[in-house]
Design goal:
With 116 residues, the chain is an all-beta fold. It contains no helices and six strands. 0% of the residues lie in helices and 27% in strands. The chain is globular and about 45 Å long.
């Protein structure tokens, strides 16, 4: 592999090739006091490099353990919100959450790669 090719290859890490393996934080546009039980969003890669999703953070509404599930599907979620087909469960675990504090869910069962 080649560091600097805009792809974080399997043998590269943030420490060995920061230009290819940069960690980027994305925030959803959810309201902090909403009573939603989940978030759906679409991530699109730029034309220059793919995106690899390895984990998520959640913010607790209160101090408690919370059941967290992460699903993925190819393409857009719109039009598939109520349709179970095409969705893959890639995380299902209980997470200790603190009120208004980011808690990392840990590694997903598999990384999700979004091609350019």
């Amino acid at each position: 592999t080649t560091c600097g090719n805009s792809v974080c290859d399997a043998d590269e890490t943030l420490a060995t090739c920061p230009s290819d393996c940069a960690v980027t934080i994305f925030k959803t546009k959810s309201k902090t006091n909403s009573n939603s039980r989940g978030q759906m969003f679409t991530i699109e890669a730029s034309t220059t490099s793919e995106v690899r999703i390895m984990s998520f953070d959640v913010v607790g509404k209160k101090n408690a353990n919370g059941k967290c599930k992460v699903f993925t599907r190819a393409g857009d979620y719109q039009g598939h919100e109520e349709d179970e087909s095409g969705w893959e469960l890639i995380l299902d675990k209980t997470v200790e959450m603190k009120q208004n504090v980011h808690s990392n869910l840990g590694a997903l069962d598999r990384d999700v790669t979004i091609p350019t």
